[in-house]
Amino acid sequence: MSLNDISTAIDQDFVTKDFHFNQLENYKRWTQIEFLASGNNLDLFYSIDFGLTWIQINKNASTTTFALTSTLTRFDGYFDVKSDYIRFRFRNNTAGESYRLRQFTIEGNIVEELST
Fold this sequence. Notes:
single chain, Jelly Rolls, six-stranded antiparallel β-sheet, three-stranded antiparallel β-sheet, 11 strands
């Protein structure tokens, strides 16, 4: 597979569907994504507005890119956002690089709304 188009990177972009908590009258809190991947590097984002804007999920406090290896490895991305809907974007747009995504699992919970 060619990862370049005459020395220009081919944007390797995988966007998930929108995931949805459907319990009304509660807060929906998304907290983590776990994924198995190999390859070069991977940037990970989430969107809570159906893909209009993207927020990057950091690997840790000082690194935004997930450095992959040739061995399929489990990675965790942590975030904390309240939203009814969420979608994810896995991306690498560096010339000569690629990634392989085997699976991902998202975690979240329903927090009962506080009555006043």
